[in-house]
Amino acid sequence: MSEPIAESNTEQGDKAIGLLREKVRELEERCKKYDNIIEMSPICTKIIGLDRKLHFMSRAGHQALIDPCILKERFQSLSSQYAK
Length: 84
Hints:
mainly alpha
């Protein structure tokens, strides 16, 4: 009986590269999904780096800085929801 022919190194490398590309695409999609969730949050969400600098602030945070009345309304709305 003849033994199966082993795949060449280039074929193995091509498969590995294909799998890595697929995993990278999956991670990019997940990151986009979570970025959108954070961005569309109704409350101010901030990401602070280890250097203690602001790296990201959600749209709600920007709106609150522009119009403090928005922040007050949202706070009162959330407070009443959590008080129940």
